[in-house]
Structure formats: C-alpha cells, structure tokens
Design goal:
alpha+beta; Aminopeptidase; 5 helices; 8 strands; 32% strand; Acyl_CoA_acyltransferase; GNAT_dom
Length: 198
C-alpha cells in the first residue's frame, strides 16, 4: 500500500465517507437497487450479483496504492447511499482523480454529492497536497457533467473511445480538473452551497 493514500474516515454534517469494506456488500446492493442504477448504460454501477467482485476490485486497487475507495453514509439516517473513490493516484506528480461515484436515486440531487466532493477535495488539496484533482465522466452522462461543473471544475478535454463499457461499447470520457491554485475559490463556493442547503 502507498504511504500517500491511507484508509481514513472523512466527516461532514451531511455525510461520512468510510473506507470501503466487504461488510458493506449488502448495504451497497440496497443503495444500487434504489433506482436500479446498473440499468443506466452510461455508468458502471454493479448489478447485485456483481457487487462482491466490484468491492474486491476496489480493495485490490487500494492495496496496490492506486486508490482510496469509500462508502458514502448519509448522516441524517445513517444509511449507506453510494460509493466514491480517490483513484489513479500519482504521488510523484501530486495528482489524483475523484470518481467511481454513484448514489442511490433517493440521495441524488441532494447535498450528499456536494458534501462528499467537499470532503474529498479538501483531503486532496490540504492533506495530500495535490497539484491538481481530476474528475471524469461519460460524454453522455449529462447529469454527472452538470454536477462536476457546478463544483467549479473546468473541462480539460474529451478522450475519444477512451474506455470499454460493460456492454462492449466505447466511452468518450470528458476530463475535468481543479488546480491547487483554484482550490481556495472552489472551497468558498462549495461551503456557500452547503450553507445554503443546511
């Protein structure tokens, strides 16, 4: 495991990000079943039968030092409502990607995503001392793209035929980033959004 990424819990009034564990299996199936998220062709949310392999892959990535996966627990009812991750960790260049994020339908369009991203970005820039943080999504995932742009990230470009999807199609990946020099303004922006939502 990398010395740079270590398991930890991040907390906000809205959410608690806890290190992913195999014991979260059933709760993640329940979260993904709220909206049958695996049916969204432009995402990679695992079907219930694939959840154990999904968790194993994420934990193997963490053990190799490439990622730090979390479950997202909503504080108001203590329910696990999704997953997110720091990944593609590049300690030498101080870069990391926030992604692999999905939420139960009942947690979407709430403060859950903003609070989660605020925690992850704060950890990346203030603890890990990142130079830049990337966020990526499918070109056709309009909701995800809008959410990333609302955070204050700027689009870097589109990687054409970047990744093969479970159905065999190729994904065009839209790449966004936030630079360390932009973090103070983005932090104020996110804190303001969360204050208004409280």
């Amino acid at each position: 495991m990398s010395d740079w990424l270590q398991p930890l819990t991040l907390e906000h009034a809205e959410v608690r990000l806890e290190p992913l564990a195999r014991t979260h299996h059933d709760a993640l199936i329940e979260a993904a079943s709220d909206g049958a998220l695996w049916n969204l062709w432009f995402t990679s949310v695992p079907k219930p039968d694939d959840m154990a392999a999904y968790i194993d892959d994420a934990l193997a990535d963490a053990e190799a030092g490439h990622a730090q996966p979390f479950v997202v627990r909503r504080r108001r009812d203590e329910r696990i409502v999704g997953c997110t991750r720091l990944g593609h960790a590049d300690a030498a260049n101080r870069r990391v990607e926030i992604g692999w994020t999905w939420y139960a339908a009942g947690a979407q369009r709430s403060a859950v995503n903003t609070a989660s991203k605020r925690l992850l970005l704060g950890h990346a820039f203030e603890t890990l001392q990142c130079a830049a943080v990337e966020l990526r999504t499918h070109r056709f995932n309009r909701r995800s793209r809008a959410a990333i742009e609302r955070l204050g990230a700027l689009q870097d470009g589109i990687l054409r035929n970047h990744r093969r999807m479970p159905d065999g199609s190729y994904r065009d990946t839209v790449v966004y980033s936030i630079l360390a020099s932009e973090w103070p303004a983005v932090r104020r922006h996110l804190d303001h959004i969360l204050e208004q939502a409280a």
